[in-house]
Each structure stands twice: as structure tokens, then as C-alpha cells.
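stage 2 :: seqdesign
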């Protein structure tokens, strides 16, 4: 099993005040040191009154990485995203009278899971990085208090751990219609405008080089289909050829049908 990278110099930080006790709990849960004075060029899991965020300190460092289902890009997509016309809706097989249940085996920052939940799917998210799972949990808790998205968030659940193991031990009663897989893409050339924040995220989780094993586990359990998200021009994950391909501007969905 491939271990997640987790940044070596990561520490929990909260400004002095009421968040200290919560930050101590978080540091204990993750087995991370807690610091009170951040030095330059360290990685922090920073607890602020607004949110939990992953940050790198120092000049030129990327902006913080955090989960926000309410505002920002997710808020924009919620309003203008195109509903069932979206490629991902077609890829998972949403149609009139049928909304699949989904296991998102690579939850990450939960954006795809949230979009699927907005389309009505119940989505059980799996994430093997305990740090990413904390960011996700924090985003879910905040979103659950927002009237506009609370109903959508109620369709999301989260488990921390290796998705392959989880899928192999799944009870028949828990079999989802769809297993959704979006492994961390292979690093691209420097021409690619990968946002700095995403580079920080990549440093945290590493490249998901065991994606082929995960695809196998997903194919073994999915009730109806497995959907794999890839960069448009990337090779399919090693294994059987997809039955359907939905191609967008920069992204592609490879669909493996069970029947
Ligand atoms: C590219 S990100 C997913 C982004 C996500 N689809 C989103 O919309 O935010 C991949 C994530 O999947 C997680 N991951 C990869 N392989 C996994 C596995 N076998 N089990 C659990 N989590 C996995 C990584 O830790 C990483 O957080």
C-alpha cells in the first residue's frame, strides 16, 4: 500500500485565544506538534475563527488550502454550474427517475462529491490523508450551518482510510451504484498553469501511483459503473478499456460499465 506523503514539517497552529484547546485536540488526533510561533517556510495546519487551512509560511508561498462549499468557486458553480447538463452528471448516469448512490473513493477537497450531492446523489467519501480529511470535515461542518447548502451537505458522509481496503470489505447492503475515482494526476510540464495552492495540496498527498489497484477494487464492487476522472489528454488508468468516454475542455470521464 502506498503511504500518503503528508508534509514532513507540518505543525498545528492557532493564534492565542479561544481556539487553543481545539487546536490541541487536533494536534493529538493527527499526532502532529503544536506550535505557537510559526517560523518561515514551514507548513501549518492553521486554525482560525473562520476555518481550518493548510498554509505554507514565508514570502512567495501559495495561498491557503481549505474546503469551502459555500462561497468561492463552489458557490459560483452552484449558481451557474449547469445542473444535470454537466458532464459529471452524465458520467455517473443520472437520468430522469434515477439518481445513483456514490462512493467517492478519492474525496480530496470534496468538490466533485459536493457537485454530485447537489445533483441529488448520496455520496460516501473516502480519504486516506488524515490531514485532508480534517480539512474536509471542517468544510462540511461550516457548510452544514449555511441555509443554502445544509441540505446538500446532509447527503455527504466521510470515512478516513484506504479506499481499496474499504471497498474490499464492503458489506453487500452497502454496495453503491457508482464508485467515483479521481486520483491525483501525474505532475505535468511547467507550462501547465497548476495553481500554486494545488501544488501545495500535491505536496501533501503525493501522486496516487496505486490508482490501477484502486480501479480494480472499484470494478469488483460497483453496482452499475465506475467513473474515473482524468486530465483530458492523459492515458486511461491501466486495466480494462473504458466503455464510455465523456470529454470536456480539460477533463475527461472514463466510464466502466458493470453490465
Ligand atoms: C485529485 S484528489 C481528489 C480531488 C477531488 N475529486 C475533489 O473534487 O476535490 C485525490 C485525493 O484522493 C486521495 N486518495 C487517492 N487514492 C486514495 C485511496 N486509495 N484511498 C483513499 N484516498 C485516496 C488523495 O489523498 C487525495 O486527497
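stage 2 :: out
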Amino acid at each position: 500500500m502506498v503511504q500518503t506523503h503528508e508534509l514532513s514539517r507540518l505543525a498545528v497552529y492557532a493564534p492565542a485565544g479561544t481556539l487553543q484547546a481545539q487546536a490541541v485536540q487536533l494536534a493529538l488526533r493527527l499526532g502532529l506538534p503544536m506550535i505557537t510561533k510559526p517560523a518561515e517556510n514551514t507548513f501549518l495546519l492553521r486554525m482560525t475563527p473562520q476555518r481550518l487551512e493548510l498554509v505554507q509560511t514565508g514570502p512567495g508561498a501559495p495561498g491557503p488550502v481549505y474546503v469551502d462549499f459555500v462561497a468561492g468557486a463552489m458557490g459560483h458553480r452552484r449558481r451557474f454550474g449547469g445542473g444535470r447538463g454537466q458532464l459529471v452528471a452524465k458520467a455517473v448516469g443520472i437520468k430522469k427517475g434515477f439518481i445513483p448512490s456514490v462512493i467517492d473513493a478519492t474525496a480530496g477537497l470534496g468538490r466533485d462529491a459536493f457537485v454530485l450531492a447537489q445533483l441529488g446523489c448520496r455520496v460516501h467519501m473516502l480519504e486516506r490523508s488524515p490531514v485532508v480529511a480534517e480539512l474536509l470535515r471542517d468544510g462540511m461542518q461550516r457548510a452544514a450551518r449555511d441555509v443554502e447548502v445544509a441540505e446538500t451537505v446532509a447527503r455527504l458522509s466521510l470515512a478516513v482510510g484506504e479506499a481499496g481496503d474499504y471497498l474490499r470489505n464492503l458489506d453487500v447492503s452497502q454496495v453503491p451504484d457508482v464508485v467515483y475515482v479521481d486520483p491525483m494526476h501525474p505532475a505535468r510540464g511547467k507550462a501547465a498553469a497548476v495553481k500554486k495552492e494545488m501544488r501545495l495540496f500535491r505536496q501533501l498527498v503525493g501522486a496516487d501511483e496505486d490508482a490501477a489497484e484502486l480501479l480494480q477494487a472499484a470494478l469488483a464492487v460497483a453496482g452499475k459503473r465506475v467513473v474515473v476522472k482524468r486530465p483530458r489528454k492523459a492515458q486511461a488508468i491501466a486495466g480494462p478499456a473504458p466503455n464510455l468516454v465523456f470529454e470536456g475542455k480539460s477533463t475527461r470521464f472514463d466510464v466502466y460499465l458493470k453490465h
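stage 3 :: structure notes
- The chain is about 30% helix and 20% strand.
- The chain has two domains: 10-56, 72-257.
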